[in-house]
Description:
Elements: E1 3-4, H1 6-10, E2 24-31, H2 40-56, E3 66-68, E4 74-76, E5 94-99, H3 110-125, E6 129-137, H4 149-155
Parallel strand pairs: 1-4, 2-5, 2-6, 3-5
Antiparallel strand pairs: 3-4
Amino acid sequence: xxxxxxxxxxxxxxxxxxxxxxxxxxxxxxxxxxxxxxxxxxxxxxxxxxxxxxxxxxxxxxxxxxxxxxxxxxxxxxxxxxxxxxxxxxxxxxxxxxxxxxxxxxxxxxxxxxxxxxxxxxxxxxxxxxxxxxxxxxxxxxxxxxxxxxxxxxxxxxxxxxxxx
Length: 165
């Protein structure tokens, strides 16, 4: 499974420096509420804009641990080793996976969904995620509609899904 490193898609290293102790026990599924992307060019454009907006808006760097495009590629944000800023109160004990797009009324592409499942398996196999980690929707941890109704319904059928922390 390929994860596009942050330095490859952004042109520089992550500005996040705080270390995330592995393995973590929680994986949070989110959506970016941006336009979707289906090609490498579109995804890179959206990622670069999201990163710039996050930094200008006062974040250290892009908030997600990983982002997934409609093209089925996984893009590193904070990654497995650094603390992101995706879910207030849970950043130091979870990873945040942001699907690029708005999934209130539709699902991400089948390639994107499979990439997320593969990422989670990879995380367990490489001891970044605990074997008994809990998979949660962003809305379960904070007052938001993320990851959108359709995506939230979808992930409830995935292995490791949990009703609560």
